Predict the 3D structure of the following.
Amino acid sequence: MTDRAASGIVEPRDVATASWPQAFVIYGVLAVMLGVGAIFGIMLMIPLGFALVLGAIPYTLTATFFIVRERRAARRALDAMQDFHVEMSIADFGGRAQKLSLLNGVVLGLLGLLLAVTTVNAVPLPDSTMFLLALIAAFSGVEIVANAGWIYRRKTVLAEEYALRTRTHSWKLILANRWLGWAIWYTGAGIAGFVLVTQPSNFFL
């Protein structure tokens, strides 16, 4: 048995991986496409925004349930298994979904801060505000898709839990990505709840 196998680390088998340059290129192309789409399709983004506001709280609560369940199951598996294998690419934060989720979380955070600044300072830029809202709606959709390949895949969760438990590989990036994810999801849910309470006539008859 090799040292790598003995440590419980194996090479990736069916995991979509990407280097940081590849992740930046993929996300950059996606961001440009969404930016152009937001410019020319603001009206098309509005229904998406309404759908995301209505679904933000149920999605966040449902996602929280499955995330907590999967992570607890992974911890129990690590406790129970003496001869387990986790995928090195995930422990090293090499998964494509991991990187795209982190990049998208950073972008969403920046867009949210920019929107907050324009709102608090009452900046009279309705067109810019609509553009920001369209972008946030689009990138929120990306967040949901990226998360599907990151937080719900059992092998990914197991590898991340292994890295966090042993404080090895890219555990700091994994932890940062998780905290950023929680911040984005619950901030979005909070904003959605505020909008639903203060502007119910826009969503309910």
The longest helix spans residues 42-80. Strands lie at 9-10, 86-87.
